[in-house]
Amino acid sequence: MYRAYPCVRGEAGRFASDTHAVVEEAAFTLNVNGRNVMAAMVSPVDLEDFIVGYLFTEEIIKGPGEIESIKIEKSVASVLTTNPFRVTGRKRVILSGCGGSAAGIDPKKLKPIESDLILPYDAITDCIREVMASDLHRLIGGIHSVGLAGPEGMIRRAEDIGRHNAFDRVIGYALRNGIDRSRTFAVSSGRISSETVRKCLVANIPVIASRGASTSLALDIAEWAGLCVIGFVRGEKMNIYTRPWRVEGAGDVAIER
Amino acid sequence: MYRAYPCVRGEAGRFASDTHAVVEEAAFTLNVNGRNVMAAMVSPVDLEDFIVGYLFTEEIIKGPGEIESIKIEKSVASVLTTNPFRVTGRKRVILSGCGGSAAGIDPKKLKPIESDLILPYDAITDCIREVMASDLHRLIGGIHSVGLAGPEGMIRRAEDIGRHNAFDRVIGYALRNGIDRSRTFAVSSGRISSETVRKCLVANIPVIASRGASTSLALDIAEWAGLCVIGFVRGEKMNIYTRPWRVEGAGDVAIER
């Protein structure tokens, strides 16, 4: 469910190479009676309970007795049911935990980052502090806070019930105000997943930093496309997983793969 | 972006009526050139930046210059672009922050809860403590932990990169093992949103409790369908938003609406 990932650990501007446990994120496809019913990002372990629960809560089956067989091959599960003509007819809606993007990610179709931005250490820790200090976040919880910042500090902060919505909000602000995104970085109160990495790549934002963790798939895509991912920014500490040269002073520390 | 919601506050088994700020969650539909391109759950404020950012990160527009007009009426935004024949062709994937359910919610199609379950106070606080004590959560972050429990304690715990996947996992476990779900409650490390409430309703799980916040829409649906929602379970404290009689001793405290 996780794997060791090499990184550069920073603390108060000093750096050392290290490894850190990163949670696995994998694409998963579900076919029912030969027809694709969903694709999701999941933790790729023990999928039977998930499949049965999903089919039930999506009202594709009334109970486990309607399942004839489940066959799982790598990231594809094929289910046969006793009600072969039942289909999922309801409108599909993007969820409040996420919102925004619901696009599949094909890294080869993404343009690598083009930017020579190098960030001062303090710009990153200061902006994370600022994004975490959201009044709404403190008052009510349950809201995601995302910022778009530059070397001189915060440019725009946005909050939304959907993490990806908040990303779209700051990117939309940058677009509408003609901001050079190759000179910016994104900061987030929440986890860095493949989809938020994808949004940064589409928008050519060269660095993403978060107080939280990153997923394995987010790091694989970021590594491929040249995005700098910084996780666990807490106080004066941070883990730089990819492109450490974008953080002032961290470029000389080797990441061993 | 939030509203006051009445609740019963519990602390170490003592109760008082109060109100608490709850974050707003609303359904939002986006039409581009007369065609529906998405429906999402959002924070219903300042939507222009979100719309422009979404259209850009989904590669429906190359920049804000391709937008002719944005018209927003209540929860529906209609956009006209200068590239009227561009469509979103990529595969839609459910996101890692959520996973699982992507169904729209029509409360009228949901069956109200049928259960006479009343829970001891300690069963709730103990199970939240247990679900938060996940080793993986502590080690790597970035993972959601959900449990299905009964009055006597935890029945099954599941972790997944997608919050809703973790719910589907424990529901799937209950189905496969013939557990009477009307005698169970769900505990979660994360926010309670409309979709997790919907999963409990489909599975006839009468109580959902979380360390985190609940959204306004989650509470509205729960209130309608008779689900007991308990938020901010921390140490000996909790906020009971709906059906307080399901918590031992809280049934006599008035919720003023």
From TrEMBL, chains A, B:
The record's section on InterPro entries has: Cytidine_deaminase-like, FdhD
Q: Which UniProt keywords apply?
A: Cytoplasm, Molybdenum cofactor biosynthesis, Oxidoreductase
Which SUPFAM superfamilies does this one have?
Cytidine deaminase-like
Single GO molecular-function term? oxidoreductase activity
What's its EC? Answer: 1.2.1.2
Q: Name one GO biological process term.
A: Mo-molybdopterin cofactor biosynthetic process
Output the HAMAP family linked to this UniProt entry: FdhD
| Alphabetical list of NCBIfam families matching this protein | fdhD_narQ (TIGR00129)
> What protein does this entry describe?
Formate dehydrogenase chain d
